[in-house]
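Input record (one chain):
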Amino acid sequence: MKSKLETILIVDYGSQYTQLIARRIRELEVFCLVYPFNKITKKILNEIKPSAFILSGGPRSVLDKNAPKLNQEILKMKKPVLAICYGMQLVTKNLKGVVKRSTHREYGHTIINIKKKSLLFKGINKRKIKVWMSHGDNINKIPKLFSITSLSNNKIISSIENNKNKIYCLQFHPEVYHTDFGSKIINNFILNIVNIKNKFKIQKFIENKVSELKNEIKNKKIICGLSGGVDSTVTAYLLSKAVNKNLYCIFVDHGLLRKNEANEVSKIFSKKFGKNFTKINASNIFLKNLKNVSDPEKKRKIIGKTFIEVFDKAAKKISNVDYLGQGTLYPDIIESIPFFGGPTAKIKSHHNVGGLPKKMKLKIVEPLRELFKDEVRNVGRQLKIDKHLLLRHPFPGPGLAIRIPGVIDKKKILILQEADHIFIEYLKEKNLYNKIWQAFVVLLPVKSVGVMGDERTYNYSVSLRAITSVDGMTADFYMFTNNQLKEISSRIINNVKGINRVLYDFTSKPPGTIEWE
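The corresponding structure, as predicted from the sequence alone:
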């Protein structure tokens, strides 16, 4: 696949938005790879033979003593370069321009003024556009043979280019949805400047991946942990296509799933995989291990450790297993550890990322680790997976444990399951479910006074969370109507004993995350 497809190489300097660059490129059906700056070698460049480079932003300053450096081989290859934020400053410094610390830091929405025609801005008819900035250093002097193509309202250089050598630099982030015409700018670079012709097709991905899995696993056995979510479902179907009866699926019910979910999952997958499907009811073990634990990271680690222990015990009952299949996606890896070990900052841990205890002695297979959620759904469609499974909202591995801030117990889980079920059923009833990327209820560790039936109550409060997104990396809250919020609130309070107050979370990502913990 790498040798046949034209590839964009994204050089990661630690930006939390690096994966969004890859996401935008994939939207164009163009293949790309992400490598951290310190893993770029002449050998790798010769192997990949990139058609172009994109240099990401990053949290450091190019003026720092130990700041990430630009590998000179990149410029020597004379391929098109798009340098973003830190990448722009790095190119400027390397080509003898001047970067200085600014007394005016630009962060968030900023208006830029396009000063000169550019292939990068082709098709953008406005002279002023709103972009997303995040920088403290500015370009004080541009390198020779470069020209300024835009300035911000603060008179700070926002973009420069050397059209002859096809080097284009942006101080703002076109990959972030907050930037107007951001996708257009990336499109112009990829399709018009780089002129990519050979596209990355999902059907071809499936064919290559199935062939790759067959060659790797051969006639050996592989086990796969099923949760009923989109990721693990598509993983299992893809593995089944490659290894057929050598796939064994294990579903661990940790007691932290949505209402009726355990039974639904068991019914669907026992029909698909027959005797090769095993369900383990371990809810009591998980609740015991989580007793009196309130720290969210500790919860995740306990759930991850317990899952491995329960899974390992079940796996040992299947003889001669060599492989473990996991539904790890690209965003999971980016938020936990960098895809290739780069400098991106860790946000939170994911219990299916980072490997297994040595005692399991299984080789991990993650067939979807290079894909984003919508690409995984596209794979699922090609594999003829039921729409009911494919269109389900994302659900975290730790389940409801991270939707109950504070200490967890059985009573809280039951209350949350009921409230969440009412919320989701309302969305389906009003044809809102598929318009929303993810929706759920959080049971807050707060009780408040209420009046119900002329009696005083002192019950829990819950917060509704509903967001729209394309990839889950950035998100906006869904704007319900006043009447819709009233109806949802009324249904929850009237039907769930233990709740007397309903709130709504008006927070985008960033600055918040989708989940509360």
